[in-house]
Amino acid sequence: MVVFEELFVLSFGRLKGKTMIFSESMLRTISQSMATTSCGGTDLETCRDESGALTLKFVAIAAILVAGVSGVAIPLVGKKRRFLRTDGNLFFAAKAFAAGVILATGFVHMLPDGSTALSDSCLPKNPWSKFPFSGFFAMVSALATLVVDFVGTQYYERKQERTQASEARVRPSDSDGIVPFIEAKDSNGKVFGEEEGGGMHIVGMHAHAAHHRHNHPQGEESCDGRRGGHDHSHGHGHSHGFGLEDGDDEDGGIRHVVVSQVLELGIISHSVIIGLSLGVSQSPCTIRPLIAALSFHQFFEGFALGGCISQAQFKTLSTTLMACFFAITTPAGIAFGTAISSSYNPDSPRALVIEGVFDCVSAGILIYMALVDLIAADFLSKRMKCNVRLQVLSYLMLFLGAGMMSALAIWA
């Protein structure tokens, strides 16, 4: 018995010692990673000019604000105009260009910046140099965006179903001479929006899945507008009942509601970081090229977001709030960065960790949204399949947008 007690005490003592060593090492690593002391420098000392930088910051706030407001307003204000309608070819091609800009922002700007920050020599080698945290954070944020996308879609679909059920209970009967409300179903008995197996559509590939579900001779609408056999039209003229105006487009208002909200979340998360980074800089050599790059970037991100908001058909108040929130985020970040520039050290390990993590998280969100909810949603739609000219134009605009935004990495 005494032997077992001694072995237990000896083993427990070794385990306790290793635990204490590990805890001390972990605390030391965290302390080094969160240090606020300067480590190196990013601004060129020969170009450091606080007064000149302050002037350029005011110029940047004005230019980026105008670019953001213009970008998000064009699809919202112009949706009633023939050449900018959300179902027009010009809008479709412009949205493809904006999707390319967002994709390049994630891959070429945000992810490399995050990787550079998290692998900086100022940070402790363990764990920052032992594991590819930049890719890991981007992957986790993309998967989290998928979950939010899925949960948000289900939430609005269930809300719509409850609204339709309540409308059905209060509608007049046949005795009043009015046709009673009947829930729309297709020939297979599925509710509108339901996929094979009972699941609801979640990503932009819904259009692709819907095409395969109806890809049979009786009921498929051909590209020239003719139908054969059974008619699958349903006539969905009801309101969705969650703050939307009447009249959804063919891809479903629910998807556009979720896409616009998640996309705005992703854009805002990195707009704060880029605004803060510009605001704390004291180098006109750094700020000057950023003004043009961020204005271009803000305009086309705003156009993509404005298009999604327009297609979601929110009410006027919701549309205005979302547009204003997008437009002021980067200028507000610049203003906040300017206010704390005297006490904030952008070259400290803490700043590198915070900016690196936010850049990688933003990259994951933007890459997911660009590929799944913008590019796949449009390029796998029936509209694209039936219009060869639109296919060519949209692909050109997509690669042009991605290429131009990538080229801006030379200056920004």
Question: How do the helices and strands line up, and which of them pair or pack?
Answer:
Layout: H1 2-33, H2 50-77, H3 89-118, H4 125-128, H5 133-170, H6 206-213, H7 253-280, H8 284-312, H9 316-339, H10 349-379, H11 382-385, H12 388-407
Summary tags:
mainly alpha; 67% helix; 0% strand
Please describe what this structure looks like:
The chain is mainly alpha-helical. Helix content is 67%, strand content 0%. It has helices at 2-33, 50-77, 89-118, 125-128, 133-170, 206-213, 253-280, 284-312, 316-339, 349-379, 382-385, 388-407. α3 (89-118) crosses α8 (284-312) and α3 (89-118) runs parallel beside α12. The radius of gyration is 27 Å and the shape is globular.
Kindly summarize this structure in a few lines.
The chain has 12 helices and no strands. It has helices at residues 2-33, 50-77, 89-118, 125-128, 133-170, 206-213, 253-280, 284-312, 316-339, 349-379, 382-385, 388-407.
The biggest beta sheet is recorded as: none
**What string, H for helix and E for strand, traces the elements in order?**
HHHHHHHHHHHH
Cα Rg: 27 Å
Q: How many beta-strand runs?
A: 0
Report, as a whole number of angstroms, the end-to-end distance.
Answer: 71 Å
Shape: globular
The protein's oligomeric status is single chain
Annotation field: number of helices? 12
Report the portion of residues in β strands.
under 5%
